[in-house]
Specification:
Blueprint (H helix, E strand, L loop, with lengths): L8 H27 L10 H15 L3 H11 L10 H37 L5 H24 L6 H16 L6 H9 L4
């Protein structure tokens, strides 16, 4: 009789292959979840939080050094890597951070200049100050209107020449004409 392989070995390899296939399928699902995660959407339930965060937790268990070592071992001798993925990612992240920092600083400077320009050119008073200024202007306008109404009507240049003729006639009669008489004559309507 031929020796049969122990029955425990065959199911073990089959179960190992199933477990390996299952873990690869789960890893692929986790990768899909990470790539399609809605980052702006809040978690609705505890299970939702676990479903969204578990793939990140699983993939974060691999350290960058382990991945780099595996990658370096898999690379052929003729095709050596100039730098590891981790180094490249760190360099790209640093470059992007520097670019964003300089852009933020430029925007802050522009905003500061605009605010300074607005402050120096367009100083706007407080609402209470605006109300006070409006009240003062109203009072000044009312006083000006009252003084204009209280003033006697001023004769035009033609009527002044007529009044000079009248004054001249009065002075030819021999009656002395003083400045008070002239102002009284000018103030009256000589119609």
């Amino acid at each position: 009789m031929a020796a049969k392989p122990p029955p425990s070995k065959k199911p073990t390899t089959e179960s190992e292959s199933k477990a390996q296939k299952r873990s690869l399928d789960l890893l692929a699902e986790d990768c899909k979840r990470i790539c399609t995660t809605a980052l702006n959407k809040p978690f609705t339930t505890l299970q939702d939080a676990v479903d969204h965060l578990l793939p990140f937790h699983v993939l974060s268990s691999l350290t960058g050094d382990e991945v780099d070592a595996e990658e370096a071992e898999a690379a052929q001798d003729s095709a050596r890597l100039l730098c590891s993925r981790r180094d490249l990612a760190a360099e790209l992240t640093t470059r992007r951070a520097v670019e964003l920092h300089s852009r933020v600083e430029d925007l802050r400077q522009r905003l500061g200049k605009l605010e300074d320009r607005y402050r120096t050119r367009h100083q706007r008073p407080l609402p209470e100050e605006e109300l006070f200024i409006a009240q003062v202007l109203k009072e000044v306008a009312e006083r000006t209107l009252e003084t204009e109404r209280a003033k006697p009507t001023v004769l035009s240049s033609e009527s002044e020449s007529d009044s000079d003729e009248v004054l001249g006639a009065v002075s030819t009669t021999g009656v002395p004409v003083g400045p008070t008489v002239k102002s009284n004559i000018k103030g009256k309507d000589c119609g």
